[in-house]
Specification:
Elements lengths: L8 H5 L14 H30 L1 H8 L3 H29 L1 H19 L5 H15 L2 H12 L5 H9 L1 H20 L1 H22 L10 H8 L11 H6 L4 H32 L3 H7 L2 H22 L6 H23 L3 H26 L8 H30 L3 H21 L6 H5 L3
């Protein structure tokens, strides 16, 4: 047992063997660990999304100072997404092997160094490398969050917890524009990158000092029973063979396909919403900045609601898998419907209304999908299956801006691009509904071929 630091002493030492869990509730000590963990995950997720936005916010100044073309800037913007997508697969396996505490601290430090380096670059090549490292470094964030929820929450509470940390994505997106703009106008774009890098490094140290994985805490038997919540306990570190065998289950591929459609639609809006409002509805740039923020506020509510719905269904007797599957599939289908309505309307007010509903539903979908990661596979493979799902999502996320751009360029309209996004979502729903059926059992991973 490693020595406890003063910062973590209240989390590890204030509950003796005599403290137990009453009626399936967590002990006061576990509740404090949960609250601390969620606060750190929410904060790191917000920093994660703010760091992604720095390049977009400083786009004109960077192009001017470094003499970059619009095409080169497009390559810089896409570098992060591709690196982030393909780094998911090894990231999940590493998280399950080394634990959330080590991996999130390391990843935070890695992406923060890359972020700080972005403020010191002098060429396209240096900036491209920094953005690639940023993508690799940020890859463990969400699979680690899923792992922490699986580690520290009972099965019927994981949905709400997932909704809280998942809301960091839309909170970070909403906060990034005003915060980064103020910093940039005050100290310049280079120091904007540097300040965010320093903040991330401080957060990495804080997470490592405060957070503990379950095996690093002396849990009582009652606490272990609450955390397992009737699930078969699997504590062995997963092997490469275990990781490979996850690909042999329809549930894995259903999660990959479903999240592909979810994140495709999300990045269709993330990448093109301001331009859509300007081109299709002739909003000014100044007005677009305020109007485009409205859907993300709905996204925060959707993220929190999606996780809560999963828990409510689970408490009412719906199976662990179906309590996630139903909200995920229904909300993604709804996203498709309102994306079609967005394409058909000629009213700016209705368009923003439909997009806001779409964002609400797509974040219900993301929360339910990440909540699925906490029940779809054995505990020692939670991050692995979550990362596989996220790989599928961000493969779609990386394709969406490019496909949308080519369609708009050829048709001079966003309508066909929105129809394509809606169709992708429908195909994803069908695949998710058919393939995600049963949790992956531990024996299937540990048994012989």
């Amino acid at each position: 047992m490693e020595q406890s630091s003063p910062l973590v002493r209240p989390l590890e030492q204030d509950a003796g063997v005599g403290q137990n869990v009453v009626g399936g509730e967590a002990s006061p000590r576990v509740r404090r660990i949960q609250r601390t963990a969620l606060a750190l995950l929410l904060l790191s997720g917000i920093v994660n999304y703010i760091d992604r936005a720095t390049l977009s916010i400083a786009n004109p100044l960077i192009r001017h100072d470094l003499g970059l073309s619009v095409g080169e800037m497009g390559l810089l913007l896409s570098a992060f997404l591709w690196a982030y997508a393909f780094a998911q697969l090894p990231a999940g396996a590493l998280i399950d092997r080394f634990g959330a505490r080590v991996m999130l601290a390391v990843s935070l430090a890695m992406w923060s160094v890359a972020q700080a380096f972005g403020g010191a670059v002098n060429s396209f090549g240096q900036f491209f490398a920094a953005r690639m490292v940023l993508g690799v470094g940020e890859a463990p964030q969400f699979p680690t969050s899923a792992k922490v929820v699986r580690d520290w929450f009972g099965k019927k509470e994981r949905g709400a917890a997932t909704g809280i940390w998942n809301s960091s994505s839309t909170l970070g997106t909403a906060i990034s524009a005003p915060l980064l703009t103020v910093i940039m106008l005050t100290v310049g774009w280079r120091w904007m990158f540097g300040i965010m890098g320093i903040a991330g490094l401080a957060l990495a140290v804080l997470f490592y000092l405060v957070h503990r994985d379950p095996h690093q805490v002396k849990l009582t038997q009652w606490e272990r029973e609450y955390l397992s919540d009737g699930e078969e306990e699997v504590t062995a570190r997963p092997t490469l063979r275990d990781w490979r065998r996850l690909f042999g289950f329809g549930t894995t591929w259903g999660m990959v396909l479903g999240f592909f459609g979810t994140i495709y639609v999300l990045w269709l809006y993330n990448a093109w919403l301001p331009t859509y409002l300007q081109m299709e509805h002739h909003l000014t740039i100044a007005k677009t900045g305020w109007v485009a923020a409205v859907p993300y506020l709905f996204g925060v509510v959707g993220s929190l609601s999606g996780g809560k719905v999963c828990d409510v269904l689970a408490r009412r007797g719906v199976s662990a898998i179906n309590s996630r599957k139903y909200p995920m599939a229904i909300s993604l289908l709804g996203t498709s419907i309102f994306t079609v309505l967005t394409a058909l309307t000629h009213s700016a007010t209705l368009a923003v209304t439909f997009i806001s509903i779409s964002m609400f539903l797509v974040y219900v979908s993301t929360s339910a999908a990440w909540a699925m990661a906490s029940v779809a596979a054995p505990a020692n493979c939670t991050a692995s299956i979550g990362a596989m799902q996220n790989f599928g999502g961000y493969f779609g996320g990386a394709l969406a801006p490019v496909i949308t751009g080519f369609i708009v360029q050829k048709s001079q309209s966003f309508q066909p691009a929105l129809f394509v996004g809606a169709a992708v979502a429908v195909v994803a729903v069908i695949g998710y509904w058919i393939l995600v059926r049963e949790p992956i059992p531990p024996m299937a991973l540990e048994g012989d071929e």
